[in-house]
Amino acid sequence: MVIHPHPSRGRIVRREGVPFRSNSKGVKLDPSALLEVTGGLDVGVLAALHDESILDAAQFDKATVIALAQAAALLETTDFSMRKPLDGKVVVTAFFEASTRTRLSFESAVLRLDGKVLSVPDGRVTGVQKGESIQDIGEMLNTYGDAVVMRHPETSALDEIRRNLTAPLINAGNGSGQHPTQALLDWYALLKWRPRLADPVCPPDQRVHLGIIGTPGSMRAVNSFVQLALLFEGAVDRMTIISEMADPLGATLTERTKDSKIPIDVTNDIQKVLTDLDVIYMNSIAFLGDDYKTLDSRYKVDANSTLKPGSVIMHPLARRDELDTSLDSTAHNLYFAQAAGAVFIRQAILIAILGRSGAIADALQR
Questions:
Q1: HEC assignment per residue over the chain
Q2: Are residues 321 and 350 in the same domain?
Q3: Rounded mean pLDDT of 214-222?
Q4: Beta strands per DSSP E along 206-365
Q5: Residue span of the structural domain in which 65 resides
Q6: Are residues 192 and 169 in the same domain?
Q7: Are 39 and 103 within one domain?
Q8: What CATH number corresponds to the domain at position 172?
Q9: Beta strand pairing status for 116-120 and 147-152?
Q10: Can you give the pTM of this predicted structure?
Q11: What pLDDT score does 100 carry?
């Protein structure tokens, strides 16, 4: 079912009196134009996610990414919380690894839609400290919540918990593996910034040269972001990986990129490409083994860098000195807008997997 904005309303805009909290600095994005691309929001795509787990960016197609972004745009621009779409639902947030933005944005997403949260903010407070297995925890969580959001330092933890867990599982970061909901909020920001990227045929003047500063094979957020970028052939004109590593993609991502029609270059010379990049996605923190490591530390940008006019910088945060605060008040700063959209994209995901997509269809038809 494809739902179009109501003709008497035209573009979806923020209703008077609805509080709107945006990023304090950098580019501020209007989500409303997203509801007008691709002919409207296909609610059927959202409904197909009912009871699905969100584990790997590779499970998405372009239509699903766009539908989730459009649903997030509706949530961001209307007083949707009054519909209480998650009333009666309990979401368990199980974080065995430190998190600020991801855990709090998921919990905010649930609570603002009238759902309830059971939180494990630190794995040290669980039975794991006494030797309990992750798979036994999965069995326990089946009766405690309707969905589980888990972050874990071990890449294999997803497979372990799913041996017994039957409730939908959302991967909030597994070691050096994947962070699919981070990639979805990244693309939500990009599609708000340039909605024509969602067009079946993106106009040439709207296409982007995408630069990746980091090591996708070792950085879960960057890995997932690159995988979603591969879906936007014709919108991403070219992708350039800037890394200290000889093989920054790693085996799995190399396999997934080999058939892509998007030209992908690798360089260790940032100055060679910086002035040609429309979008710069950067990170320096990777989780390797049992600790955080800083990779690609020699690649830094600040307000004096030779950036292309009109270009934007993205970063999953937390940052170190690779992304200087001198860029925060400039029009290159898209990273604060990225973070500002996290609650809405995660609300869209939760509504879809918990079978409440009908509330979105109803909102668009009224």
A1: CEECCCCCCCCCCCCCCCCCCCCCCCCCCCHHHHHHHHHCEEHHHHHCCCCCCECCHHHCCHHHHHHHHHHHHHHHHCCHHHHCCCCCCEEEEEECCCCCHHHHHHHHHHHHCCCEEEEECCHHHCHHHHCCCHHHHHHHHCCCCCEEEEEECCCCHHHHHCCCCCCCEEEEEECCCCCHHHHHHHHHHHHHHCHHHHCCCCCHHHCEEEEEECCCCCCHHHHHHHHHHCCCECCEEEEEEECCCCCCCHHHHHHHHCCCCCCEEEECCHHHHHHHCCEEEECCEEEECCEEEECCCCCCECCCCCCCCCCEEECCCCCCCCECHHHCCCCCECHHHHHHCHHHHHHHHHHHHCCCCHHHHHHHHC
A2: no
A3: 88
A4: 208-213, 236-242, 264-267, 279-282, 285-288, 291-294, 312-314
A5: 2-178+341-365
A6: no
A7: yes
A8: 3.40.50.1370
A9: unpaired
A10: 0.90
A11: 85
Give, for 42, the enclosing helix (H) or strand (E). strand 41-42
- What span, in angstroms and rounded, lies between the C-alpha atoms of 209 and 196? 15
Percentage of the chain beyond pLDDT 90 is 66
Query: How many domains are contained in the chain?
Result: 2
Read off the amino acid at residue 316: P
Residue 11 has pLDDT above 50, yes or no: no
The gap from C-alpha 11 to its chain's centroid, in whole angstroms, comes to: 25
Backbone phi, then psi, for 328, in 5-degree steps?
Answer: -60, -35
Structure tokens at 42: 């296909």
Residue with tokens 């070691």: 175
Residue 125 and residue 22 share a domain: yes
Residues 45 and 119 in one domain: yes
CB contact at 8 A, 103 and 152 = no
Judge if 150 and 46 occupy the same domain: yes
> In this structure, which amino acid lies at residue 341?
G
Do 90 and 23 fall into the same domain? yes
The CA distance from 318 to 173, in Å, is 14
For residue 364, count CB atoms less than 10 angstroms from its CB and return exposed for 0-12, middle for 13-18, buried for 19 or more. buried
Whether 312 and 247 map to the same domain: the answer is: yes
Q: Are 313 and 282 in contact (CB under 8 A)?
A: yes
- Average confidence (pLDDT) over 185-201: 96
